[in-house]
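Kindly draft a sequence, keeping tokens residue-aligned:
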Amino acid sequence: MSNTQFGTTVNSVGIARLAGVGRAAVSNWRRRYPDFPDPVDGAEGSPLFDLAEVRAWLRRMGKLAADESPDAVVEAVWNVLDPLREHLDGVDAVALLGAALAAREEGADLAALPEERLRDRLLASLDVGAPPPDLPDAAPLRRVLVDAADRLDAVGGAPDAFERLHQRYLTSVSRHFFADTPEIGALMLRLVDDSAATVLDPVCGTGTLLREAARRIPGVAVLGQELDPGAARLARVRLLLAGARPDIRCGDSLRADTFGGPAADAVVAHPPFNQTDWGFEELNLDPRWRYGVPARKEPELAWVQHALARVRPGGTVVMVLPPTVASRGSGRRVRRELIRRGALRAVIALPAGLTPPMGVPLTLWVLRSPENGSAPPDGVLLFDASDGRADDSRGEAARSWPATAESVVSVYRAFTKAPESVAESPGRYRVMSLADLLDEAVDVSPGRHVRRPGLDLDSLADTRGDLLRLSEDLAASLPGLRPATGTLHQAMTTLGELNRMGGLEIVYRRSGDDPGEGEPSLPALTGEDIERETAPSGRGRLDEHTVRLRPGDVVLPRIARRPVARVVTDEEAALHGTTYLLRPDPEVVDPWFLAGFLTGSGACAAAASTSRPGVTRITELRKVRVPRLPLADQRAYGVAYRRLTEFRRTLRRTTEVGDRLWWLLTEGLAVGTLRPENGKEA
């Protein structure tokens, strides 16, 4: 592969993508503009151009935004890595850039390092005990890595910038490393003792849980094993960039464990589910099966026992498991021993969509390796957080995962100190005695044992009244609309054009603005908040760089199930990294008109890509199209859109209250508080 071919070059299609135009426009520019960059390689019919020269020309001609968003920069870096991905597996191309960033963080000058030292430095960061990737020639490799690293510097420090690239990588692959969400990682690590000096993940994927451990526990040593060598290498460089002390090894933890014996103070893991070939035959007599040999159909209980065998006495294990592990008949004997000997401490039912696989309501198992000579505790905490509620009610404000997670942590910590002090919360949690759990089924599913609360008749009456009032408001909130005649909206413009003429400002949030532990912060409006029309649920760092939202701002999610925009009214909140912010001049662009057309199905089509079924990512905000209308007409549309927004909010509230009333009536019949009219007592 020649240096030029492997250098930072781009073809006509790539130039068109950078400028947001068709390929014919690029051909036209080459003919019209004598200063258009000359080809540096390629055939006559498919020339290659120097990417840096092309970008400079596009920017000079006003065809490329100088203030590119962090997402756009990361997308550009992703394209810069194209030649590497032709030579290496995609995960190794990303890991290699991470290794280069880690070397730069340690003070290395990538452009000046001798070739052998550069290769040695990169391979040392990628060393996970597996054969190293076959690196391309040093000179073109250096050019790509330096170019990509320089670009990432523009969107914040190396750790934050690389995390953006890691997320971009995850959207590109069909194979699935269990890339846990920050929400589940934070909860799992909060259930671990803060004094843990060593944390192990025996199936670490790309290192998300270990990165959370390094973030939450100062000075912790992180250990990980991963079957896929590329994922293991990526995990190692992510942890290096996070300032951790990683020991990541490649291999099958069940069949070829590299950390023999108790190696950690805590184990966190999200093992693969329903493995059919996990080593049942060859591991039948394995000494790790202290609680019974796992059945062939119980690979998850093999992972549980592996984790207990690798944690020191008294250490904590927190694992994400499918709900069926708590009740399958084939696992009854192992569950019985885990309970009888005091290893199982808590089972927490989680809401679906909290972490992959998104369609399954998973569970967290919290276990402790019994200390020698200690009596088993007389109780297991069962917590039902499957609906993400913060309390025992089922109102619209109850579905707050942060508050639910806080409740899980506080109840679990109280339980570990004094199990007898944790009183039952009907419908939420309950401490079950070992004797009650050790029945024939040995079922530890929270939903089976957490008793439903009784019906509050006052709440029933209030809910019925709320529904009747909302039904009246719903009819009154519909705007008056009439059929249009003729063809409308023939004249269109783009957000980029409105920005250039001063009609609106496009505001991007800096990367790295998420607050750390104890740092000043304020609420931040996330993309999910916009989509769900809820209050700000994120947090934004409070400093001189904070982008505060103002009344009249228009915000929209970067990624959503469908296009949606929201006009800021009076929220005291910051811009979140998952959202775009448009700040229109109300004398040029009506904000409600703008938000309404951005919510329409066609406005974002030219600026969006589909990263997975049913999910749209807006990648080129400036290409979003809206009608070009006089301000008076905009305001008329704005009034209609505002009424429609109120109608939708009232409709949602009506649906939520109706759903609550349905649940209260159904529950009342089930528990015997209500009975049918003219019916007999059950």
Q: What stands out?
A: The domain at 182-449 is CATH 3.40.50.150 (Rossmann fold).
